[in-house]
Amino acid sequence: MIEWINFLILIISTLLMAFFYIKSVAPAKLEEKLGDVAYKKCGIYRVIASFFELIAILNYILYFFFPLPILIAQFFIWDYSISVILSLLILFPCLYIMLKGVKDAGKEALFPDKEHTLYKGIYEKIRHPQALGEVFLWWAAALLLNSPFLFLYSIVWFPIFYWFCKAEEKDLILRYGESYIEYRNRTGMFFPKKK
């Protein structure tokens, strides 16, 4: 019974994380209705989204101890050390890209700020390093937990994170106008553009 409850909470936390994160990336749109308080409100939405993401991570860990009684194997067919190696091969570069994005975005990474200017650093090459790094961390976690089911479940994060990025770009165009459109045209969404 606990395995089904855990799975249900995982689905709910995934949906709530997506819901609040989408709300958090639209401060310029919300500002049209609420004024300057919109940025603070979007920061609160981002914190709430992060809370539900943390719950999803805990659900992944609990799944290791309480897997669903379904036809998918509980563990990968290869030795666990291979799962660990694959996990680390994903984890280190993705964590670097994500943390570099967080560093270069500054406090805007968690709290939208009306006065914030367009980013520098890694953002000169790609527009969404945090999303690029973070989305693959779910696969790294599934491999570390040696779970084929979680590896398959982690596919759901790819369209969700893509949706986040598209929604954020829509708001950034509203926020920065032509300068963001020019920036978007010269940088890749997830990978650097060829010159």
Your description of this structure?
It contains eight helices and no strands. It is mostly helical. The protein has a single domain, classed as Four Helix Bundle (Hemerythrin (Met), subunit A), CATH 1.20.120. Helix 1 runs antiparallel to helix 3, helix 2 crosses helix 3 and helix 5 runs antiparallel to helix 7. The longest helix is centred in the N-terminal third of the chain and has 29 residues. The mean pLDDT is about 90.
> Could you give the order of the helices and strands?
HHHHHHHH
Structural class: mainly alpha
What fold name goes in the CATH topology slot?
Four Helix Bundle (Hemerythrin (Met), subunit A)
What's the CATH C level?
Answer: Mainly Alpha
Topology at a glance:
Blueprint: H1 2-24, H2 27-34, H3 37-65, H4 80-105, H5 129-144, H6 148-153, H7 157-176, H8 178-186
Helix pairs in contact: 1-3, 2-3, 4-5, 5-7, 7-8
List keywords for this structure.
Four Helix Bundle (Hemerythrin (Met), subunit A); 195 residues; globular
